[in-house]
Design goal:
The protein folds into six domains: 8-109, Roll (Nuclear Transport Factor 2, Chain: A); 122-210, no CATH class; 246-420 and 589-593, Elastase, domain 1, CATH 3.10.170; 425-581, Glucose Oxidase, domain 1; 623-682 and 699-807, Orthogonal Bundle (Neutral Protease, domain 2); 835-911, Immunoglobulin-like. The protein is α+β, with helices and mostly antiparallel strands. Strands 1, 2, 3, 4, 5, 6, 7, 8, 9, 10 and 11 form an eleven-stranded mixed β-sheet that branches. The chain has a seven-stranded mixed β-sheet with strand order 22-21-29-24-25-26-28, sandwiched between helices. The chain has a five-stranded mixed β-sheet with strand order 12-18-19-17-15, with helices on one face. The chain has 14 helices and 39 strands. It comes from Jejuia pallidilutea. GO terms for molecular function: metalloendopeptidase activity; zinc ion binding. Keywords: Hydrolase, Metal-binding, Metalloprotease, Protease, Secreted, Signal, Zinc, Zymogen. Residues 1-23 form the signal peptide.
Length: 911
Amino acid sequence: MKKQLLSLFVTLIVFCIGNSAFTQEKLADTKLGLQILDYIKNNEKLSHLTSTDVADIYLDRTSYSKSSGVTHVYLYQSYKGVKIYNAISNVAIKNNEIFYFKDNFVPNLKDKVNVLSPSLKAVEAMQKAATHFKINIEGSPEVVSSSTLKKVFSKGGMSQENVPVELMYLKDKDGNLKLVWDLSIYTKDSKHWWSVRIDAINGAVLDKDDWVINCSFEGEHTHQNGHITSVLKQTHTFDVFKKSMFFVDGSQYNVLPLPIESPNHGSFQVITNPADPEASPFGWHDTDGIAGAEFTITRGNNVWAQDDIDGINLTNGGSPDGTASLNFNFPITTLDQDAANYLDAATINLFYHNNVMHDIWYYYGFDEASGNFQENNYGNEGDDGDGVVAQAQDGSGTNNANFATPPDGSAPRMQMFLWSPAGIATDNLTISGGTIAGNYGSVKPSRGNGADGTGNITGPSSTPVTGALVIVDDGGVIPEEGCSPLVNSANVAGKIAVIRRGSCAFTEKIQNAQDAGAIAVIVANHNNPTSDPDYVPYVNMYGVTDPEFTIPSIFVNYDDGQTIISAIRRRERITATIVDNGPFFKDSSFDNGIVIHEYGHGISTRLTGGANNSGCLNNNFQMGEGWSDWFTLMLTMKASDLGTDGRGIGTFASGEEIDGQGIRTRKYSTDFGVNEYTFNETNDDRVVGQDADTGEDIRLNEIVHYNGTIWATMLWDLTWAYVDKYGFDPDLYKGTGGNNKVMRLVIEGLKLQGCNPDFIDGRDGLLAADIALTGGADQCLIWEVFAKRGLGVAASRGDLAVFNDQVEDFTVPDASDPSLANCTTLSADTFNTSDYKIYPNPATNTITITSNRNLGDVKLQLVDINGRMVLTKSTTLSRNVDLDISGLQSGLYVLKIVGAYNSTNHKIIKE
């Protein structure tokens, strides 16, 4: 039931002003809290909570949503003062009334707690975590701050940030609560920001999340907290100044503007004064809230874009300088060249789109109060000091991108990598003279050498290097491996060194050759690129280069290497020319879809469970990947698009044409013939590989991008339902089309769905968001969309700890449901939950549809997985209707029941 809260609105506003957005006061100690406790006590749906369960609840954060008029209150549960990890519930208040309560509290606390005090000290827990993740602790970390339940340790050489260690309870898979130490470690290589729970009794690692989210084809992501600039909040007359004196700074950027997705989708354009006056009132290069730019480089309040070619992940990379005129018109003539040649242009595009993401989503509710990314919140709610650190051409990896999202007030990091080119370089190595003259295929070293050291490993350039070939000799058992200082330096000097792959790092071989005076290196590799199914046209390199390499190196396959070595040993007089004629790496900073996707992780992480919590999207469903793909699709939509089109993600970075498959298992489309995914696909637990570290099986539905694709498929269907109803508006900031309405709906839904959401929580959050935004005008539309993909009213999430027990359902609520009172899509003749059933399924010869009332004239259509209509029948759906499928081949089909007012889809298996 709903309970009126007297004077709640006034109380809440005073509460928020007095305590900012970060509160953490005991619920029972505030007037607002007492009113919420009264609601819990008198709500039948919350009757499972005992007085002990709610005796120790704290106000974690509040934020007001301008779009909906909803105040979001986030609560966390404790037991005897010890917080319960992710036991975060959120309350939505509108018009002085609690209209939505997402319960994530643990019931019957006192019966589930294992112990009251730890056996393990906080510092010991930190040491256990370091051992688990193979991290060295240098010296004895200092205690920076200390309280009864929490200690903060200095970085200690193990982390880029101080290490907070707090006593908490963790709910295990059986529902019991174990006392743990909760801590976070941001590894020095920026590849992981571990959030981990250590058993406070025996030191075992019980639970871990990574705030860094990586987005390769196989899937994963990142986070970082390196404060760029700490600026005091400007609490003076900002609101008046913001509305009347927006600063036009004359800035211009040569970029791929939205809705262009990549260089394959459109051309570079010069955009002038793009900063939005509401979202970025002092422009993109300000940090102090006073007219005039603080930075003339790609740095400002929302983002600092820089390169990280060396892959050392510090905030000291280069940033293009637009000078005092903020002119970032850095022309780029072609991408068919080494990526280093257009580094400035890539960094500018990265800076531009991080700012655009900030400004667009500000209008839909991702603002300061909700935890957006700004160095200076200009006197508004939320915490300062967390503009995005965006790194172009990051050298610590390839074929990936990532985003790390710590809690509000700590800076996220976006890392954009180069993606390997398609095809083998066929003419980068030319040999002249002797019996082996001709062009040879080769691969290049990856740029940078990651976290194992500094320096740069160079491949071939557009300037040819020509010289005689000589085999290296290190004086060892296999002298041509070059693992020790060369004993034939006099012969190597001024020539191209040929080295056989062997027992030491590539960097050591190349270093020894360079020290001996070689002008280039050819490494004879073990694998054969033309036949190796795992071949990629580059070689990852690790190790310290000191001094940095100045000579190019390439890698040939085993057969070609043997041919070259044999010819040299026959004393043939041969020379070689090494030059980079491609194929060239793709720069993901030009794939706007990937940039948007990464930034989207920051949005969904900050909004789910409140901006103080970064661990609320880490259950089995991994829906964050779905929202991020959806963000990409939304901002690259065009008026000419159709819902039935197939949209791939990351086609540019992966070297495909614009109509390519992309990096997901399905294209996004409303057409079941293109994308047939329904909720049941989350049960697909086929083994698709093994974990490289543990050897354990990896199952398809354990891969984050797989489940994310299913969720994004549903959101994409929802988008097109809104566009079909309300039209499309290309204005991404203040448009009024269906695309704008669904953007507002999704942001509000993220705030409402609660911590650790599954698909049903996500659906319910959107339904609640529609009530908040429109009074429920689109409840029917939302239900119909999700029901078609198997997320109808009777769908079941199963056990969140289990991967394959979800149950799909294709029915919508009964039209008499009170929540549908304000929507107009469903009618009295709509099919609903209790009207009919379909059996048997799987079936061999006949499918029977049994209805308990006359549902009128319908068409029964059976569609195969390729979208072909294989059977159709017109009938009156009353009592029993049989459908003969005996003549069909075995397999999966979709049965469409199309009536006058509605249609439903059901998956049918023909045995």
